[in-house]
Design goal:
single chain; 189 residues; mainly beta; Porin; ten-stranded antiparallel barrel; 71% strand
Amino acid sequence: MKYSVIVLMILGLTSTVLAEDFDYNFVTGSFGQVDVDDFNADGNVYGLGLSIGIAENIHMFADYQGSDLDFGLDVSEWSVGIGFNTPISDVMDVVAQLSYENVDFDVPGFGGFDDDGYGLSVGLRAAMSEAVEIQAGLSYVDFSDSGDNTTFDAGFLFNVSETIALGVSGSWDDDVSIYRLTGRVYFGN
């Protein structure tokens, strides 16, 4: 809850900033740290993502995330889906996404298993200025065998040029915390 209040306060500050339309055509790359409380394990996390605007308010996306954790645990996750984005002010878009999700666990000495399901997310993209964008949202995933999970995500991007942005982000749920450095390359608006 405290994260939500902080994000809403920051988003409220954007009301006087004028921004252009958000671009939904981009490639992202990220690297960071993950901490898993259930296994008392941490490690590196890396990711790749692609978003392509296919209509004025519709985009398709694909994301991959890999984690190398303590004790040789490896986790690979990927998702593909479709999203709806629409402005709710001159400086803010609401984004809703529906996705197919897959996760693969590899545990040394025990083999591995994979699971799949669907994901739903809703979030906001807000322009603090022409150079700074902040994002926040909630994601829900329901896997066939592993159950469900809800995650709070937040981050910001600094546009170093019209086509390149750098930033930091985080994801938090009951058991997992992830902190990332992110790079984004836009390829059209």
